[in-house]
Design brief:
alpha/beta; D-Maltodextrin-Binding Protein, domain 2; 2 domains; seven-stranded mixed β-sheet; five-stranded mixed β-sheet; 18 helices; 12 strands; SBP_1_CS; signal; Bact_solute-bd_prot1; transport
């Protein structure tokens, strides 16, 4: 009997100890299951959060960039390097396919964990984008910190189709006017200032700088053709409801007429018929006096060029606009960061994204030449501070004028955009008048749309 009492007492004591141990254990971090965990981030973007999953095991996350300029230097400085510095066990490995490989081909043969770039309709169709709503809630991510111009655009893309959140904005890719000071000096033309020019003033300036001298063909003003000019007025290419061409409007007529005026500047088109002047003409040939284009399209490549030992004297001014639109610049393209729906590391990938979108992470991208996606005016003061190619540039002109939210990108837009390049060529070298060029492009686009309805399907 005494043995039985003693045994019962021992059992009760052991039971109590087990309960106490279990209770205490509930206050400790759970063991790593290798499949995510809650890793809750702080509401401010978790710049100082303890991401246990990122800190416990060696982890490689694969990164794929599509539809946006993002150099290897930028990838290392803005993403891979900062994450590695804070979490030495975490490696962000970039997938770099051949230039001719399509996003569909990449996503069918690789499983990137993180997808960077503009949110493309062709990628949406593959199902590669993970709906982030549950991860946002799970990790207590504060969406109110994101600039509406970026986040509203991303949410607009899937409005009416489940309202999924397919990505979070990484940076706001604004337009500026780049100008080659050496060409201005050569022809004795004063530099642009912080004053936003009208397009009439920009064309007049470009005319003064377009000439041939010592065998070099100098071009005064390059605007990224019709698609670039259309961004001054936030013009869609296709009607959102019908899918038909949306070019037969007064605003598109203004754009075609302005493009025609630029092409008609004496000397703009070479005797050999060259008319489509590009980034390389500005950066490498250095025969473009003014180019109006994206920040991301130029700053990163200019820094790469500088690292290769090629430098020249250029600066930044505000992007011009129509006289009734002064105070606004062009559409701001949204570069976003997303998670692959097939990733085996969704939680960890989201924690990396939250770190990149923290104040600390966004300060890094600002210092290296990208306009942050979060609401924090202090970061504008840091813009360009750490990227050598922007030293001495008038970077405050980046923030002159209000960028427009990007127009809704129709599911067929990327497939029919070639028709606008053809229309520009019709204006430049084929002698078409503005109305004929619009009519021809409209007919070509509508034929394309009928084909796309069968190959891609109804949107």
């Amino acid at each position: 009997m005494k043995r039985m009492k003693r045994t019962g007492t021992i059992f009760i004591v052991l039971l109590i100890l087990a309960i106490v141990a279990a209770c205490n254990g509930g206050n400790k971090a759970p063991a790593d299951s290798g499949s995510g965990g809650d890793g809750s981030a702080q509401a401010d973007g978790a710049s100082s959060g303890d991401f246990k999953k990122l800190g416990e095991k060696p982890l490689t996350l694969k990164f794929y960039s599509t539809g946006a300029t993002f150099t290897d230097v930028e990838f290392e400085v803005m993403i891979a390097g900062p994450i590695r510095a804070k979490y030495p066990n975490v490696t962000i490995e970039r997938i770099t396919p051949a230039a001719t490989t399509t996003p569909e081909e990449v996503l069918s043969t690789h499983v990137p964990d993180i997808i960077f770039g503009s949110v493309q309709q062709r990628v949406i169709r593959t199902g590669a984008y993970q709906d982030l709503r549950e991860l946002i809630k799970k990790h207590n991510f504060d969406e109110s910190r994101l600039k509406p111009i970026g986040y509203n655009y991303i949410k607009e893309i899937t409005k009416g189709k489940g309202d999924a959140v397919l990505a979070l904005p990484f940076n706001i890719n604004q337009h500026v006017m780049y100008y080659n000071k050496d060409i201005f000096d050569k022809f004795g033309v004063p530099y642009p200032t912080e004053k936003q020019l009208t397009w009439d003033e920009a064309v007049e300036l470009g005319t003064k700088l377009t000439r041939t001298e010592n065998g070099v063909h100098y071009i005064g003003l390059v605007v990224d053709n019709l698609t670039g000019l259309a961004k001054s007025l936030r013009l869609p290419y296709l009607d959102r409801q019908t899918g038909q061409a949306a070019l037969d409007t007064p605003d598109w007529l203004r754009v075609f007429e302005l493009q025609k005026r630029i092409f008609e500047i004496p000397g703009y088109i070479t005797p050999e018929g060259t008319w489509n002047w590009t980034r390389d003409h500005f950066m490498k040939d250095q025969n473009i006096a003014i180019r109006v284009s994206w920040l991301a399209n130029m700053v990163g490549p200019l820094e790469e060029l500088r690292q290769q030992g090629v430098e020249f004297n250029w600066d930044i001014a505000p992007a011009p606009n129509f006289s009734d639109q002064l105070g606004k610049t062009r559409e701001a393209q949204i570069h976003a960061i997303a998670i692959n729906s097939q990733s085996q590391h969704k939680d960890e990938a989201f924690q990396v994204i939250a770190e990149i979108l923290s104040d600390e992470g966004q300060r890094i991208i600002a210092k290296n030449g990208r306009v942050p996606a979060i609401i924090n005016p202090e970061l504008e003061k840091d813009y360009g501070a750490d990227i050598p190619v922007l030293q001495g540039k008038t970077v405050q002109n980046v923030f002159v004028g209000e960028p427009l939210q990007e127009h809704y990108i129709h599911p067929y837009e990327s497939e029919i955009s070639k028709r606008l390049l053809e229309a520009a060529e019709d204006l430049a070298v084929k002698g078409l008048d503005v109305n004929s060029a619009i009519r021809k492009a409209t007919e070509a686009i509508n034929k394309d749309v009928e084909t796309l309805k069968t190959t891609i399907g109804q949107y």
